[in-house]
Specification:
251 residues, 7-stranded mixed β-sheet, 8 helices, 14% strand, alpha/beta
Length: 251
């Protein structure tokens, strides 16, 4: 039993250190709040954690028999570690392709733009046009404005395409503009929480409590929804300075 517990402890510690390093890099680089929430990566992280922190060390505990030859034990542990690395590699690839690259203000909402939201053809067009805000492999999340183009026909085609399941303007880096350029339009879109259609009655009640607990007024036209692949969040701005004051969850 002592050998099993020792093998289990060493395996668990090593797995925890490697997993913490990988998740720490992703969290600090791309998934810090509200990125991890809006991108809804809890399931991917859950699978990685189960395999690396539970299944791997547990299997090592099971096979670490004192009666087993050391060579055979090392081979079995190597197989388990290999399976763990495959699972970790899969999860890492998923996290990389889903990493948040932009928080975009477009029309009347804020949206997270993840790496796999940007199709190769759109990336190529942005690269060809040498758009300053185009993404690079090393890009960290940036706040940008993604307005529809000024050409009415082009704007109508994009809007219609988005309705039919095609590309939306937030997936077209060639149209991205600096965040500061969109601030005047963003100010016009700020509204009272009570008027938002993105939240249920229960979610609004919870948001009111959380805003009040943070010392914010709850009846001012200073909020805008923030959406992604999870439940929407509520972003609160200072209407005068347009500084982001807080982001709240209604769940």
């Amino acid at each position: 039993m002592q050998l099993r517990l020792k093998a289990f402890g060493i395996h668990l510690l090593g797995s925890a250190l490697i997993l913490s390093l990988v998740l720490g890099v992703f969290y600090l680089g791309w998934y810090h709040w509200p990125g991890w929430y809006l991108s809804d990566v809890a399931k991917v992280i859950g699978v990685i954690a189960v395999v690396d922190l539970a299944l791997g060390p547990l299997l090592t505990f099971v096979i670490a028999s004192p009666a087993k030859p050391r060579r055979e034990l090392k081979r079995d542990v190597a197989v388990i570690v290999a399976l763990q690395l495959i699972a970790l590699g899969y999860g890492t690839v998923q996290l990389w392709h889903g990493r948040p690259l932009y928080y975009a203000f477009s029309e009347n909402i804020l949206q997270v733009v993840q790496a796999y939201d940007l199709e190769p053809v759109e990336l190529a067009l942005a690269e060809q046009a040498k758009v300053p805000l185009r993404p690079h492999w090393y890009s960290l999340p940036r706040w940008i404005w993604a307005p529809l183009p000024k050409n009415p026909e082009t704007a109508a085609n994009i809007a219609q395409g988005a309705i039919n399941g095609g590309y939306d303007v937030i997936g077209m880096p060639r149209y991205y503009q600096p965040w500061t350029a969109g601030v005047p339009e963003l100010r016009k879109q700020l509204n009272k929480l009570a008027y938002s259609n993105f939240f249920t009655k229960a979610q609004k009640a919870l948001l009111v409590k959380r805003m009040a607990a943070a010392g914010f007024a709850t009846d001012l036209p200073d909020t805008i929804p923030m959406i992604g692949r999870a439940h929407p969040l509520l972003a609160v701005f200072d209407p005068k300075t347009m500084e982001l004051r807080g982001i709240f969850s209604g769940t």
